[in-house]
């Protein structure tokens, strides 16, 4: 088994350095010896993990409570809940007045929000985030403070290389936050769904479209039936029409959440397909009825959000799926007359 895993790792390295035609992993109709394919809708034995899943942190527990109470919150408190979920790394640094201004509410509403969840005041709620982030990614936190000052105050002029470094720092901060906040249980559920899928449909629009294209490219290495819902010619409805039970729809969308993506998810649920949502907030309307969801917070600089963390998460998803399937890489030697 150890030798097999080492061989798998070597093959994966070849996969991402191979410049020719797409290598093919396994076959959709060929299964591992002695392992029966799970029937549609059938319960599947839990996958044995090499490590014990990490328990929820106080921040995770608090955010889960906020998520569960979100629909019952007054409108002003919903704004604060969304801000905290989307800017959790900044909460420990923000003043009550800062959050109130960004949410368009009175500062007393921020205090009421904290009290709603059992804190005597907002500073006590901040302490939960401060304790969680102490010692984690100090460079990223310093970046957030610096860039916010630059954007808000418009002080000084940056050189072109300095702009590049600021954006690289933002991407690095996003990766650190992805590593710290990855939900192991949801990630495992996502891999299991892809493993059992008959067909995989992938949808992402505008800034999410490159990510959707990459997922399709990667999953085609598994020789599964993978479909990019590109909407070419405005044909989202036609491209998602065939989705059904036993299929998985992978949707990548960030606020304000594309209407096309939301339509495809509704179609998937209507036809009893599973859904995997990759998004930026557990309060996203896409998450509530998803079969599994993965959250990713991108770093941003100068009003532009990176895609670094999202692409990294998708690569990790594919590698985990290939590892779960114990697939062998079979490089296709015939490039069809193309060199790359």
Automatic annotation (TrEMBL):
Chief location bin: membrane
UniProt GO molecular function: carbohydrate derivative binding; DNA binding; DNA-binding transcription factor activity
Membrane-related topology note: Single-pass membrane protein
UniProt xrefs under InterPro entries: Homeodomain-like_sf, HTH_RpiR, RpiR-like, RpiR-like_SIS, SIS_dom, SIS_dom_sf, WH-like_DNA-bd_sf
Domain HTH rpiR-type: residue ranges: 60-136
Highest taxon of source: Bacteria
UniProt keyword annotations, A-Z: DNA-binding, Glycolysis, Membrane, Transcription, Transcription regulation, Transmembrane, Transmembrane helix
GO BP term, pick one: glycolytic process
Localization per record: Membrane
GO cellular component: membrane
Stretches assigned to the SIS domain: 190-327
The protein's name in its UniProt record: SIS domain protein
């Amino acid at each position: 088994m150890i030798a097999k895993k080492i061989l798998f790792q070597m093959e994966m390295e070849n996969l991402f350095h191979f410049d020719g035609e797409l290598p093919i992993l396994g076959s959709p109709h060929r299964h591992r010896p002695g392992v029966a394919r799970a029937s549609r809708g059938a319960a599947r034995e839990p996958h044995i993990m090499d490590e014990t899943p990490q328990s929820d942190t106080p921040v995770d527990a608090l955010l889960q409570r906020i998520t569960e109470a979100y629909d019952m919150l007054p409108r002003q408190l919903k704004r604060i809940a969304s801000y905290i979920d989307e800017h959790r790394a900044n909460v420990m640094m923000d003043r009550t007045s800062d959050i109130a201004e960004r949410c368009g509410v009175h500062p007393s509403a921020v205090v009421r929000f904290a009290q709603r969840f059992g804190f005597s005041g907002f500073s006590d709620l901040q302490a939960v985030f401060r304790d969680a982030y102490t010692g984690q990614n100090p460079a990223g936190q310093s970046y957030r403070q610096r860039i916010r000052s630059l954007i808000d105050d418009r002080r000084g002029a940056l050189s072109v290389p300095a702009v590049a470094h600021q954006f690289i720092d933002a991407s690095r901060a996003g990766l650190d936050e992805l590593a710290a906040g990855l939900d192991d249980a949801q990630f495992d559920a996502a891999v299991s769904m892809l493993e059992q899928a008959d067909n995989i449909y992938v949808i992402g629009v505008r800034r999410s479209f490159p990510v959707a294209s990459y997922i399709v490219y990667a999953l085609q290495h598994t020789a599964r039936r993978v479909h990019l819902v590109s909407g070419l010619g405005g044909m989202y409805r036609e491209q998602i029409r065939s989705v059904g039970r036993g299929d998985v729809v992978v949707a990548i969308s960030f606020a304000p959440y594309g209407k096309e993506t939301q339509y495809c998810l509704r179609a998937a649920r209507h036809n009893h397909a599973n859904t995997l949502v990759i998004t930026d907030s557990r309060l996203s309307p896409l998450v509530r009825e998803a079969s599994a969801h993965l959250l990713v917070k991108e770093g941003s600089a100068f009003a532009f959000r990176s895609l670094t963390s999202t692409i990294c998460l998708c690569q990790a998803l594919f590698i985990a799926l290939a590892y779960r399937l114990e697939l062998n890489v079979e490089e296709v030697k015939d490039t069809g007359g193309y060199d790359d």
